[in-house]
């Protein structure tokens, strides 16, 4: 089944304790992206990657890191989480054929609470 | 310039009615305008999308109307059903070779409730 998977789905942590949220897709998509969703603010893009070893900042990259060492994986790293990073996080992927991005497929989300 | 403004924030429609959600943008470089549907506890899923070379696209009960000169686009849901109750997001992205080619900008979302 074609899908984007995220782990963990729920996470409670404390301020300053490094964490990683994993994202994996099995559709051989070139493009992957991370978003955070907060009430009333819609989806805001954190980082995106056009292909392996290529990553760029979205609109809200502060406090986050990413890496794209393999095509299928795009982990989101919070080096020193703070309470304002409490949010619902989504990973997404899409084809990037001939320079055009196709439909984005979203993962099920990771709900993070930073105390 | 990368903003997309969506309205209304919430919408209540009777079963069988027409639901209309509007979005406006500033960046004239945007060239891909998708609408996503999100049910509680799920990730967003693409509903329908349009490129600016057409003014309307219809898929079943869902229609996007696009007004390039006004920099606005809207989602129309005909014969709305209770199963359509969800949050809807408009979005916009840039063409390839644009500085921001990989960026996606989303509206704030509209919560649609269709009453039986």
Chart the SSEs and their pairings.
The complex is a heterodimer of chains A (115) and B (116).
Chain A: E1 4-7, E2 10-13, E3 19-25, E4 31-38, E5 42-51, E6 54-57, E7 65-66, E8 76-78, E9 87-94, E10 96-97, E11 100-101, E12 105-106, E13 110-114
Parallel strand pairs in A: 2-13
Antiparallel strand pairs in A: 1-3, 3-8, 4-5, 4-9, 5-6, 7-8, 9-12, 9-13, 10-11
Chain B: E1 4-7, E2 10-14, E3 19-25, E4 33-38, E5 45-50, E6 56-59, E7 62-67, E8 72-77, E9 86-93, E10 104-106, E11 110-115
Parallel strand pairs in B: 2-11
Antiparallel strand pairs in B: 1-3, 3-8, 4-5, 4-9, 6-7, 7-8, 9-10, 9-11
Which features does this protein show?
heterodimer; A: 115 residues; mainly beta; B: 116 residues; 5-stranded antiparallel sheet
Structure description:
The complex is a heterodimer of chains A (115) and B (116). Chain A has 115 residues and is mainly β. Chain A is 0% helix and 53% strand. In chain A, strands 2, 4, 5, 6, 9, 12 and 13 form a seven-stranded mixed beta sheet that branches. Chain A is globular and about 40 Å long. The model of chain A has no long low-confidence stretch (mean pLDDT 93). Chain B is built from no helices and eleven strands. Chain B is globular, with a radius of gyration of 14 Å. The model of chain B has no long low-confidence stretch (mean pLDDT 92).
SSE order of chain A, as H and E?
EEEEEEEEEEEEE
- Largest pleated sheet of chain B: 6 strands, mixed
Please give the oligomerization state of what you see.
heterodimer
Give the distance, in angstroms, between the N- and C-terminal Cα atoms of chain A: 36 Å
What spatial form of chain B do the alpha-carbon principal axes imply?
Answer: globular
Mean pLDDT of chain A: 93
Question: Summarize this, please?
Answer:
The complex is a heterodimer of chains A (115) and B (116). Chain A has 115 residues and is mainly β. Chain A has strands spanning 4-7, 10-13, 19-25, 31-38, 42-51, 54-57, 65-66, 76-78, 87-94, 96-97, 100-101, 105-106, 110-114.
């Amino acid at each position: 089944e074609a899908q984007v998977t995220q782990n963990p789905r729920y996470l409670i942590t404390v301020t300053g304790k490094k964490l990683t949220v994993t994202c994996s897709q099995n559709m051989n998509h070139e493009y992957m992206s991370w978003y955070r969703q907060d009430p009333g603010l819609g989806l805001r893009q954190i980082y995106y990657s056009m292909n392996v070893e290529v990553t760029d900042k979205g609109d809200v990259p502060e406090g986050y890191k990413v890496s794209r060492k393999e095509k299928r994986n795009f982990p989101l790293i919070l080096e020193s989480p703070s309470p304002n990073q409490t949010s619902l996080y989504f990973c997404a992927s899409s084809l990037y054929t001939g320079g055009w991005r196709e439909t984005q497929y979203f993962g099920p989300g990771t709900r993070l609470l930073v105390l | 310039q990368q903003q997309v403004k969506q309205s209304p924030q919430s919408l209540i429609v009777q079963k069988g009615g027409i639901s209309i959600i509007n979005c406006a943008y500033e960046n004239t470089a945007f060239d891909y305008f998708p609408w996503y549907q999100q049910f509680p506890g799920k990730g967003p899923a693409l509903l329908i999308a349009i490129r600016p070379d057409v003014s309307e696209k219809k898929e079943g009960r869902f229609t996007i109307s696009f007004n390039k000169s006004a920099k606005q686009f809207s989602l129309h849901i005909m014969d709305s059903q209770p199963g359509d109750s969800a949050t809807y997001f408009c979005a916009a992205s840039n063409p390839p070779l644009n500085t921001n080619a990989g960026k996606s900008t989303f509206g704030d979302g509209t919560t649609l409730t269709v009453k039986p």
